[in-house]
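Q: What would this chain look like folded?
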Amino acid sequence: MARSVTILGAGLVGSLLAIILRKRGHEVTVYERRPDMRRAAIGAGRSINLAMSARGWRALDLAGLRQDMEALAIPMYGRYLHQPDGTAAFQQYGRNNEAIYSVSRGELNKKLMTLAEQNGVTIHFDQRCSRVDVSTNTLFLQQPDGTETSVQADLLFGADGAFSALRNSYVHMDRVNAAQNYLEHGYKELSIPPLADGTMQMEKNALHIWPRKNFMLIALPNTDGTFTCTLFLPFHGTPSFDKLGTKEEVTAFFREQFPDAMPLMPTLLEDFFENPTSSLITTYIQPWHYQDKSALIGDAAHAIVPFYGQGMNAGFEDCSILAGLMDTYGDDWATILEKYDESRKPNGDAVARLALLNFVEMRDKVADPAFLQRKKIEKELGRRYPEQFISVYEMVSFSHIPYNTALRCIEAQDRLLGQIMTDGDFFANADDAGYTGKLDQWMNEYHKAVQQLEFENEA
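A: My prediction, written as structure tokens:
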């Protein structure tokens, strides 16, 4: 039996979920706190470009939007590393020329909202939910004129982001565990425009990174020839946002730290002082659902830092998993939400941990010669042992292997790569018959360890 479904949030995950539910016959109403971005100008300066990967594409297939978004997506086949001395090097992501895709957050959101409405979803804008009475599924909504109305939901999903009203209401319930952790780093959006003829000023098909140990600058390409840049920097200390209070200080900092980027940024000072400095948060909560009445999804369930490019992909995978459970359990929403929670909670925690680990890799390790050598060895192992070895990065970005499995494989891969790298020059030894036998043994031990991890996760 179809249910009347209410969704808080018409962002990427909320809009996608609305489409999936509507296609299965449910009546769907969405309440969004912002004005309609298709008609109103939304303030800029808080965007970190999307990096669409395998998990996100699968969800867009469910919505029927893959073809439309492929036309707006720019493949990024690797990292383009910019060193302090102005030199640069390319580091490929996958072993088979795989790519992650730079996608406009705004354009994707607009298309998802429009498709939702075309499928019969009702979206109410300028409706800020202040709280939810979880036991009765009653939403309290603040109107643009300051008045408050209430709506009682049959089935409710909170897709309203890291500061979700439904999540905050769960926190005040009995036997709910919740936490939120802020990084000491914040971020600020900057921009690199195209050349006068519209062409890009840097390599188009790469994610550009300026790694500087405790901070970094990144840049992702856009279809209009621009790059959206994001500076990740501590709030306090040296260097920090606190130390960049004047135009002279910003100019000196960029000239010293990003000598090849600064000449490409004619609006650096305007962007720096006009765009906000925003925080980076990771949230944890358990459980993710309440009886057969409500559930959290996307950032509302598992807000993460953006350093693996998996925030949207993880939220979209939530939708894919939920769709599969609906197909399996029909109208049994008590079971659907219980299974959804059991399946996704460990993976939500795992992708949060993976994102934090990748922050260290992006800002620090990618400039380390030993780390770069390890990445080359990983590619060669994938080529020689395609049935036994896939790097953790490839698991996360180019497969549907559960995040929890990928996280637990880190220790086994560290052990394997440590053996290889302490045993001499891998590429010099790799074709020696004696060494190959030893390598085969190590790979078999590694593969058995991974199979055991997969078995434990499935159990």
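DSSP finds 15 helices and 19 strands in the chain.
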